[in-house]
Amino acid sequence: MDVDFRLAFENAPVGLAIGRNRVILACNHAFARMFGGTLEDLVGQSFERLYPTQADYEEAGKRVGARLSSEPSYADDRVMRRLDGSLFWVRVSGSTQTPEDAHGQALWVFSELGQARPAGQSLRTSLTARERDVAALLIDGKTGKEVAKALSISPRTVDIYRARLLRKYNVSSTKRLIELLLSG
Length: 184
What we know:
Layout: H1 5-11, E1 15-20, E2 23-27, H2 29-34, H3 39-42, H4 54-68, E3 73-81, E4 87-96, E5 106-112, H5 129-139, H6 144-151, H7 155-168, H8 174-182
Antiparallel strand pairs: 1-2, 1-5, 3-4, 4-5
Helix pairs in contact: 5-6, 5-7, 6-7
């Protein structure tokens, strides 16, 4: 049986990307669609372009690099940025081919988190779609009023969702909530 691995990679139903030193060496169509671009928009670009902030990119690099230098794979849920600037939740898992240089060459799988999640999954994946929307905008530095306007809901409704998030994460401030959400 002759298997065309390039065809399988390009047409897989989940986002796939091969990174070399945190630059996208290759990606598939699902990855490009997920981030709102084309293969040409993404190949050759730094993964930094897909993070909410440069600080998030740097922190993730340290965290993931440390793990992949001692373990064969890594996975987490995180907020990423589409090419249009909008934020969304994604499940990222990957492995490195170069454990001595964790970011040297790595394969990454990206799955956008949807509404329905089985019981027992992580707290981030148990958030409702609206909670994820509010959280993503808070991470982006928006105020309650700005979140309300962006989502076409009342500021009071934003306060209710923010309070739910604070309870779910057992924190007392929005700043701490954002730190936990970004910690992957």
